[in-house]
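[09:14] KT: can someone run the structure on this one? pasting the chain below
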Amino acid sequence: MGRGGGPPSGVGVDRGIGRSSDASSGRSEVGRGNASDRSNGRYDAGIERARLRSENANNAARELREHPEMAARLHTTARDLRAGYEAALLSNPELKFGQYVAATRLASNLGGRHPNVTREAILAGLASGDSLGRTLRNLGLGSDEAKEAERRVNREIKESKRRS
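[09:31] RB: done, structure tokens below
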């Protein structure tokens, strides 16, 4: 009998890494250590960023599966939301899907009156460590207007997740 099909064992960016030492009689241990040592830890940080990006992308896909009407209720498609989010994860692997959706809706809701409120500008503010409210204020909204915009977008997102 032949071996069964399917994906290789393990999951994610470090799939199979635990077995490599056995398969190479220990040589791979030295290689992984060298990569980390020679890059002053950048190798490990890159692996962690990739793992975080993958985890966040999987969470977004799960959320879109659990709430299939969400994208349409937010006046977009699930494909566009997923693709845009995955692109945004490249520059900010810590970005949560809800933050991306909020940035998308805020840009749509406020962009006409405040041309500098774009999804990219909001995502840049979040990537720099600012809260959503602080980012909106930095983009020219008053404190009350920023709070109301945040409340409105949170309400829109919550309503988009309700089942029909």
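[09:33] KT: thanks! Residues 107 and 115 are 9 Å apart (CA to CA).
[09:34] RB: yep, looked fine to me
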